[in-house]
UniProtKB/TrEMBL annotation:
It is found in: Cytoplasm. SUPFAM superfamilies: Nucleotidylyl transferase. One of its GO terms (molecular function) is pantoate-beta-alanine ligase activity. ATP binds at residues 30-37, 147-150, 176, 184-187. It comes from Histidinibacterium lentulum. This is Pantothenate synthetase. Its main location: cytoplasm. Keywords: ATP-binding, Cytoplasm, Ligase, Nucleotide-binding, Pantothenate biosynthesis. It holds the Pfam family Pantoate_ligase. Pathway: Cofactor biosynthesis; (R)-pantothenate biosynthesis; (R)-pantothenate from (R)-pantoate and beta-alanine: step 1/1. (R)-pantoate binds at Q61, Q153. GO terms for biological process: pantothenate biosynthetic process.
Length: 285
């Protein structure tokens, strides 16, 4: 695996792949890799001739400096995992490579970025689309793979890719879970043992909602069941629960007649060390 620490190195690797007429797949990451990322790499391997991964903790998608500073950084373990998984090249850029001094260009999905998680974390999705657009231009992939766990992020990236005519196929990969149901996330490493034991409540709450989601049931009742399940876990503080139409992301209301997406987030722990976890599911009645 070639380790590219600057853009010319990555471009040279990309040029070699293209010269051999190979299809290039991209897996953008912020490092602190786990089995969820490896599922993205496996899917990218199966769907392309060459795989480029990126490791870049993108400052523009973090609202609070403390969240950015606390983000886990495990570069040598990440490189070993990517190499073992058969990645061909990894780009590990400096922030100034991605955001050249004096840069002033942003990319934003104006509606989708401001709603739901975007309303709670202003600027977050603008940071994601800005960096992903730049990574697409740098890595020029034919296709890119993202986790379905970040449900709204995936929708935002699909919209941006379509709107800006990037010739990149976007693929979502199902959430990978620990045996107790907790969705794998780099943030899980920051949980105390007690909060780690409590965190599977997110999946239990989604399962409880899904269990009553028969055709015609009131969506408000599904929401209530999810809220009550989270409330029964004293270590979890519900932050957001959104039940949406998966196409428009507008709130789903009334009786259940169409597929719905459920986005759930909760905080564990206190103060600066509190960890925000998210989970999601889609239900087709
Ligand atoms: O999902 C992530 O890890 C990040 O949001 C992404 C897509 C790599 C952009 O920084």
């Amino acid at each position: 695996m070639q380790i590219c620490r600057d853009l010319p190195d990555l471009r040279a690797a990309h040029a070699r792949f293209r010269a051999a007429d190979e299809r290039v797949g991209l897996v953008p990451t912020m490092g602190a890799l786990h089995e969820g990322h490896m599922a993205l790499v496996r899917a990218a391997r199966a769907g392309s001739d060459r795989v480029i991964a990126t490791i870049f903790v993108n400052p523009s998608q973090f609202g609070e400096a403390s969240d950015l500073a606390a983000y886990p950084r495990t570069e040598s373990a990440d490189i070993a995992m990517l190499e073992a998984a058969g990645v061909d090249a990894v780009l590990i850029p400096d922030a100034s490579d991605i955001y050249p001094p004096g840069d002033e260009t942003i990319v934003e999905t104006t509606r989708l970025a401001g709603m739901l998680h975007g309303a709670v974390r202003p600027g977050h999705f603008r940071g994601v689309t800005t960096v992903v657009a730049r990574l697409f231009n740098i890595c020029q992939p034919d296709a890119a793979w993202f986790g379905e766990k970040d449900y709204q992020q995936l929708a935002v990236i699909r919209r941006m890719t379509r709107d800006l005519h990037f010739p990149v196929a976007i693929h979502g990969v199902p959430t990978v879970r620990a045996p107790d149901g907790l969705a794998l996330s780099s943030r899980n490493a920051r949980l105390t043992p007690e909060d780690r034991a409590a965190a599977p409540v997110l999946k239990r709450a989604l399962d409880a909602g899904a269990a009553i989601a028969l055709p015609g049931v009131a969506i408000a009742d599904i929401a209530q069941t999810i809220r009550e399940t989270v409330a029964a876990e004293p270590r979890a503080r519900l932050e957001g629960l959104d039940i949406v139409n998966p196409g428009s992301f507008l709130p789903a209301t009334g009786p259940l007649t169409q597929p719905i997406g459920i986005m759930l987030s909760a905080r564990f722990g206190q103060g600066d060390s509190a960890v925000l976890l998210i989970d999601q599911t889609e239900i087709t009645p």
